Amino acid sequence: MKKLSARRRHPLAAFVVLLLALAATGGLYATLAPGEAKADNSAQSLAIEEGKRLYDVGCATCHGNGGQGSSDGPSLVGVGAAAVDFQVGTGRMPLQQPGPQAEEKPEVYSQEEIDQLAAYIASLGPGASVPEESLYDPAGGDPAQGGELFRTNCSQCHNFSGQGGALTHGKEAPNLHDVDPRYIYEAMLTGPQNMPSFPNTVLTEEDKQDIIAYLNEVNTSSSAHQGGLSLGGYGPVGEGLFAWVAGIGALVACAVWIGARSTKARKS
Amino acid sequence: MSSHTDEPEPSPHEGEHLPSQRDEHSAVPADDPFANPGLPPHEPRRQDIDEQAAKRSERSVSLLFALSTLATVGFIACYVAIPIDKIVYIWPFGHVSGLNFGLGLTLGLALFCIGAGAIHWARTLMSDEEIVEERHAIQAPPEVKAHVLAEFRKGAAESQIGRRRLLRNSMLGALSVVPLAGLVLLRDLGPLPHEKLRHTRWKKGTLIVNESTAQPLRPEDIVVGSLTQARPDGLDPHDENFANEIAKAAVMLVRLQPEDIKDQRSAEWGHEGILCFSKICTHIGCPATLYEQQTHHALCPCHQSTFDLSDGARVLFGPAGHPLPQLRITVNDDGYLEALGDFEEPPGPSFWERG
């Protein structure tokens, strides 16, 4: 002890103490740090790596090498896995050609590849993750409440029963007929393209599920049909056009028949 | 329905169609260019000269009437036989109620066939001779006029209206005053709105409540690219005058990147890029909330008025006459968004005294 004390003023003493302290901290961290995180990370990082590979081939041209965006495509930092799952899962991305908006088309990537891409994009910044099935299962929602919410928040663009409608300059709000509830949920959460987003602070998770339950009630192949020619469900414009053209057209045809000169013997 | 009969073609066959050569109705000289052409000569139909054709027409008409009878029977059968909740697929209508469809089809057919039978009957079998019925003179004959006038004078004398002045004058007074009742009712077209349209439920310190969750909004609830429908705190949908109040006070909140906001005043009236606009279109008051989050345009679904929310809700297109009014907002000490006052200008459509 005396020896150690005698050397405490040695020029290298401070250096030795620093080394010892660093070794102790490192050792403590190695023993106390959570070990299981390592196993999780390897599967996740593998997906991210695969996703990065897919991204570099299929997406980087427009969205930039690191997802930072370019003049041809927006930044993907912070959009989250849900946005990737929606855009790539519905075939909107990769974009076929520039236009007013990306159209739904057959998807290019398998669900596994989409998950890898989503993992990579999610690693770029915090964002919405792909929802659990229990969140968007229509059976768990209240269709009546969903109808209220749909009319308040969605019907201005998507029409009262989700039939879609026109926007400016060739853009449109698509028809929601038979859209997978997961994609409806992700669209509300992330706000694809010109659609505003409805984060959980604006429409809670239950609200979103109610809206999905409402759409399931009114606008799927399995929803109950009340009969009648729906004419696309576009409301008074389509119905009025039909009434004027078909209804009044039939009346005019009858009137012409009544008023026409009857066939004369001399000309027959 | 051929038109060549109307052309004055002097062929020997058609010669009789020329007005000047018509013997029956040509009471005017041949050189009158405005001669009344009169009626064309009657031409018989096939059914008029051929009994076989007439019989065929009769059978067609009877067939239509028989079809109508069958359709009525079918109507009753549908009513009895088809269960009310039966849904059937019928092209091109899709899935429809079988009962409704059956009843409508049979009754429509029954009525149409009666009408069509009657028309076909009239067109082929009933007489189609053109007849002119002259208008009778408007003026009544002198003896009728004299009789009516005499009756009137007799009545006037018997009523003593000429003799009893008080009676006559009071009656005229009553008759001239009675329309005032209708005139007074016109007051119901008013009163003028005065200040009513200029003030809404928003005032300094009113919390902004999310229309969907009924919770007061905080700035962190509203992310860039989102759209939030909101109403003033204290306005409950069960209130008696809710519809009147929300028609003026409904707002939407959007959040823009602060550098995207072009209008300086608009940015100052918001809070860290959160802007609160009236959602009542300034054209005729539809909710103009078709918000495009990339272009920051808000559309009105009724007449496509387009507002640029990044530029103080300036009108880009459409019939709207004013920008959407913006509500000045801030954050209170508890961290909730609140209004800094009412709208500076009346929200909603223009009105006579808006200025």
From TrEMBL, chain A:
SUPFAM superfamilies: Cytochrome c. Heme c 1 binds at C59, C62, H63. InterPro entries: bc1_cytC-su, Cyt_c-like_dom, Cyt_c-like_dom_sf, Cytochrome_c_Oxidase_Subunit. It catalyses: a quinol + 2 Fe(III)-[cytochrome c](out) = a quinone + 2 Fe(II)-[cytochrome c](out) + 2 H(+)(out). Keywords: Cell membrane, Electron transport, Heme, Iron, Lyase, Membrane, Metal-binding, Repeat, Respiratory chain, Signal, Translocase, Transmembrane, Transmembrane helix, Transport. It is found in: Cell membrane. It is a multi-pass membrane protein. One of its GO terms (molecular function) is quinol-cytochrome-c reductase activity. PANTHER family: CBB3-TYPE CYTOCHROME C OXIDASE SUBUNIT FIXP (PTHR33751), CYTOCHROME BC1 COMPLEX CYTOCHROME C SUBUNIT (PTHR33751:SF13). This is Cytochrome bc1 complex cytochrome c subunit.
Automatic annotation (TrEMBL), chain B:
Keywords: 2Fe-2S, Cell membrane, Disulfide bond, Electron transport, Iron, Iron-sulfur, Membrane, Metal-binding, Oxidoreductase, Respiratory chain, Transmembrane, Transmembrane helix, Transport. SUPFAM superfamilies: ISP domain (SSF50022). Residues 248-338 form the Rieske domain. GO terms for cellular component: plasma membrane. Gene3D superfamilies: Rieske [2Fe-2S] iron-sulphur domain. It is found in: Cell membrane. Coiled coil: none annotated. The cytochrome bc1 complex is composed of a cytochrome b (QcrB), the Rieske iron-sulfur protein (QcrA) and a diheme cytochrome c (QcrC) subunit. This is Cytochrome bc1 complex Rieske iron-sulfur subunit. It comes from Streptomyces hoynatensis.
